[in-house]
Amino acid sequence: MNNQLHSFTFSSFERGEQLPDELIKLLREASQAAGKAYAPYSQFHVGAALELVDGTIIHGCNQENASYPCGICAERAALYAYGNKTDKSPIKRIAITVINQNFTAHHAPTPCGLCRQVLGEFEMKNKAQIQLILGTEYGKTLVFESVSDLLPFAFEPEFLLNQ
Asked: Does domain 10-151 have CATH number 3.40.140.10?
C-alpha cells in the first residue's frame, strides 16, 4: 500500500462583501438568478452566474418538480444554457449562491455531486481553469481557483474512449 496525500488551497471569507469588486458583482448576479428559482418543495433557491472571458454573464437557477429527479440545479442550468450558445467565449468563473431562511451564513453553499461532475467536464472542455465562488454577500464565502478542486478524481471522457 502506498498512502498519498491530495490537498488544495482555497480562500475563505467570513462575508462575501469582503471579496474583490468583480467577484461581489458576480455573486450579486447569482443572487438575482436565485430570485427566479422555482423551489416550492425545498424552499432552497439557488442561483448561478457564469462570467465569460468576453464579459457576458449567463444565469441559471434551480427548477424543482414534484417528481424530484425531474428538477435541475442552478449550476447545470447555467452551464447547459452556455452549452447552447453558438458563439462561445471561454468561461472565466462561476458564482453560486442560495436564498433560504434555514440556510445559515456559517456555511457556504456547495454543489451536489452531479453538478461537480458537470462543472468538471465543462472545465475540461474549456481548456482552462474555471474559478468558483461559493457563498452569499453577507455570509461565509469560499473561492476556488479551479472547479476540479471539488472533485479531484472525476469520471473523465478517457474512461469511455477506445485507446
From this structure: yes
pLDDT tens string 7-62: 999 999 999 999 999 999 999 999 999 999 999 999 999 999 999 999 999 999 99
The CB-side HSE value for 158 (13 A sphere, CA atoms) comes to 3
104-129 pLDDT per residue, tens: 666 788 999 999 999 999 999 999 99
**Annotated catalytic, 14?**
no
Catalytic residue among 29, 75, 123, 137: 75
Residue with cell 447545470: 76
CA atoms of 49 and 93, how far apart (whole Å)? 8
Q: In what order do the strands lie in the sheet with 57-61?
A: 10-13, 141-144, 131-135, 91-99, 45-52, 57-61
Domain boundary assignment for the chain: 10-151
C-alpha cell at 134: 461559493
Cα of 154 vs its chain's centroid, Å: 16
Using the predicted structure, report yes or no on whether residue 83 has a pLDDT greater than 90: yes
